[in-house]
Write a structure and sequence with these properties.
By secondary structure, the chain is mainly α. It has five helices and no strands. The chain is flat.
Length: about 120
């Protein structure tokens, strides 16, 4: 079972890498749209960031750490990555202001998971 979790972690790590750092190149290989839409790049980066949480969950599962603490760490990481990308997207000016509610909730969930982890570590 450990190898399944490790393979899953590797798969999602690759997705995170390509979606976050090779975004434009990946989209250009998948579509004939030229130039690639900046909004499409933003959306694919959001997906890449979410994969980081999956890497953590799969890695924890490989070593038997599938507790509430592990789940909270993965969820906090997923929300934190979204929060950072939300801020970047808003700064770019490509996104409407009404999406700021999502940014606030991502930040709030990241904070709450961080507080939980701080107290759970005691």
């Amino acid at each position: 079972m450990r190898y399944l979790f490790l393979a899953t972690a590797l798969w999602h790590a690759c997705a995170a890498y390509y979606f976050l750092f090779r975004t434009r190149r990946m989209l250009e290989s998948l579509t004939s749209e030229v130039p690639v839409s900046p909004i499409a790049v933003d959306v694919l980066r959001f997906l890449g960031a979410l994969n980081i949480g999956y890497v953590l969950v799969a890695g924890a599962g490989a070593y038997g750490a599938t507790s509430a603490v592990g789940a909270s760490a993965a969820l906090g990481l997923a929300n934190g990555s979204q929060f950072v990308l939300d801020l970047y997207a808003h700064r770019s000016g490509r996104w409407k202001q009404r999406l700021k509610g999502i940014t606030v909730l991502d930040g709030l969930f990241m904070l709450v998971h961080g507080v939980y982890l701080t107290y759970a570590a005691r």
